[in-house]
Amino acid sequence: MLSNKQMNMTHINLVAVLLLATVTVLFAKEPETLSAVGGQKIVKEFYDSGAIKSINRYGPDGALIGILHHNEQAVAIYAEMYDGQLLAGKIYYYPNGQPRIEERYDVQGMKRIERRFDEHGQLISETQ
What we know:
The chain folds into two domains: 1-28; 31-127, Outer Surface Protein A, domain 3, CATH 3.90.930.1. The protein is 19% helix and 46% strand. The chain has one helix at residues 4-27, and strands spanning 32-35, 41-46, 52-58, 64-70, 76-83, 86-93, 99-105, 111-117, 123-127. A nine-stranded antiparallel beta sheet has the order 1-2-3-4-5-6-7-8-9, with no helix packed on it.
């Protein structure tokens, strides 16, 4: 059986956790929508910390063109490029922002080209 002091501490801890959760939800940054060249649209999404989570680019017709994904430290980790509904390619990045691996896919989703780069952006290998 818990003492009154233990019950009060448990209650205080519960209230603190609920308050922190509420504040986090209240101050989480909402997605931002921006206009871009040629009628394109950019939507930025954020982690609860406020760091950028992803940047989505849409064509004038509303079709997804690409998504740039970031880790919780707002460092780009990979990008997806689309051709209509189809995934056309991916690029994985080094922490310094240079491309690490570039992959291109055909209309069946099969990888057709893979390029690997060093941390300075120099091509190391290419397979087709």
